[in-house]
Design a protein that fits this description.
63% helix, mainly alpha, two-stranded antiparallel sheet
Length: 500
């Protein structure tokens, strides 16, 4: 008898479930899905992370770091698109893993995605608060010290927690509550709100590129790779390239691993497959189009920033606005700050939109309580209970805890999800060659294999502490699975009924 931990969910059952009554509303077209993808990707990665990554890790070679990270994502995106066209229901990589690798792997990836979206949302909300307070300062307004940030900060260099003399990050909590209310109201309203925010930030990004290109100084690109071209370690053991004083890898490849979080979010398009009007066509378009648009914009912004200001003079907190001040365009700071607020708002919306869809899929399979996590609002057709629960959780994290310590944990969790999706495509092509695939990942099997290898390469370019944090989170997940999920699994109950 096969081990029930690795029992797969039949593709026919997944397709049959699509016909049930407890469905989400199909209202999203390709433009809205692409907008959701762009909304999830372009935010803090372009307005904040570029400065620190160029200054400390990769130098001007950061533009190639974005190319490497983008290519890695393209491999994964093509695999996501194939699965999303085959099984257009909520759940994303969780659902794909259940159909190919079995229940235990499905639980691992579902739990992993919850981590990605929840911690990522809290981090983004904290970043939103910083940008919003900068806008207030431009208007000569300032919040009381007690309400500006969390009570502690995490010092990456020393690993210590430092008191900030603040009590709570009030702006972060407020924006999380507002976004939660929009998400409960409905997917159409969420998509329309997101489209507005995306329009504002795309206009600002194009402004940065279009104006900044006239202030380029090619001399700032020399040396091009001051920290080297690699930067690899293997569970903390140095393999190649340079390291910083704390022993973390630096260089062009290490830069790709660090800024990879800037791409997190395009995969969230697949979690909305159940809300797409023509999912077999629209979801692949949304995934691939959003990724290509964002990759091009990221590279162009890095080219402009490192051309305007020498890499070791870039500001690590607000690199874009400081670069414009450096060349005498201080008046542009206000535009960039407002765009930063809009940009990060859309990232927060899409990340908080995705988590409840993963829980919904897990609840339908009995791995978490159906009565709560599987509840869909009778009028709004949204997973409202889970949305509110995640909203409270994210608000607590963003308002009270130092999120910096967990930022790279989102990177390694997402890369693990990509590895599993790419492997799942290989398995499904062998196990179910007859299945209908409206979209096929091209150049099979090279695309999924290269996706697996490139994601593993970036995972091993991250500091070893991220591996330990991932193992701790997965350990907590295993406790929940064996205490509840395994016994209440719909598949397990079906096997028990069949054995009677």
């Amino acid at each position: 008898m096969a081990n029930p931990l690795f029992a797969t969910k039949p593709l026919s059952l997944l397709l049959e479930e699509m016909k049930g009554e407890n469905r989400l509303r199909r209202v999203l077209g390709p433009v809205q899905l692409t907008s959701l993808g762009v909304g999830a990707v372009i935010g803090a990665g372009i307005f904040v992370a570029t400065g620190a990554a160029a200054h400390n890790v990769a130098g001007p070679a950061l533009m190639l770091s974005y190319v490497i990270a983008g290519i890695t994502c393209i491999f994964a995106a093509l695999c996501y698109a194939e699965f999303a066209s085959m099984v257009p229901i909520a759940g994303s990589a969780y659902t794909y893993a259940y159909a190919t690798l079995g229940e235990l792997f499905a639980w691992i990836i579902g739990w992993d995605l919850v981590l990605e979206y929840a911690v990522g949302s809290a981090t983004v909300a904290t970043g939103w608060s910083g940008y919003f307070q900068n806008v207030l300062l431009k208007l000569n307004l300032q919040l009381p010290l007690a309400l500006r940030e969390s009570p502690w900060k995490y010092d990456v260099a020393t690993g210590d927690f430092i008191a900030t003399h603040s009590v709570i990050n009030l702006p972060a909590i407020i924006i999380v509550c507002l976004v939660t209310a929009v998400l409960v109201k409905g997917i159409q309203e969420s998509a329309n709100f997101n489209a507005t925010m995306v329009g504002i930030k795309l206009a600002a990004v194009l402004f940065v590129i279009g104006v900044g290109v006239f202030y380029l100084n090619p001399a700032n690109w020399h040396p091009f790779a001051p920290f080297g071209w690699t930067g690899l370690n293997f569970f903390g053991h140095h393999v190649s390239g340079q390291t910083d004083p704390q022993g973390s890898p630096i260089g062009m490849l290490a830069g790709a691993a660090i800024i990879f979080f800037a791409y997190i979010g395009f995969d969230s398009v697949s979690t909305h497959a159940e809300e797409a009007r023509v999912p077999q066509r629209d979801v692949p378009i949304g995934i691939i189009a959003s990724l290509l648009i964002c990759t091009v914009l990221y590279i162009l912004v890095v080219v402009v920033l490192t051309g305007m200001v020498r890499y070791d003079e870039l500001d690590t907190a607000a690199p874009v606005s400081m670069a414009f001040r450096h060349v005498g365009l201080g008046w542009a700071e206000g535009i960039i700050a407002i765009a930063g607020v809009a940009g990060i708002t859309s990232v927060l919306l899409v990340m908080m939109l995705s988590g409840p869809r993963v829980f919904l899929a897990m609840a339908r399979d009995g791995l978490v309580p159906q009565s709560f996590f599987g509840a869909v609002h009778p009028r709004f057709r949204t997973p409202y209970k889970t949305t509110m629960l995640i909203g409270v959780f994210v608000a607590v994290l963003a308002g009270l805890l130092p999120i910096d310590a967990l930022l790279h944990l989102t990177n390694i969790g997402t890369l693990l999800a990509f590895v599993i999706v790419c492997a799942a495509v290989l398995i499904m092509r062998v196990k179910h060659p007859e299945a209908e695939r409206p979209f096929k990942a091209p150049f099979y099997p090279f695309v999924p294999i290269l996706g697996i290898l490139s994601c593993l390469l970036l995972m091993f370019s991250l500091p070893v502490a991220n591996w330990w944090r991932l193992f701790v989170w997965l350990g907590i997940g295993f406790v929940i699975y064996f205490a509840y999920g395994r016994r209440h699994s719909v598949m397990a109950k079906a096997r028990a009924a069949a054995g009677r």
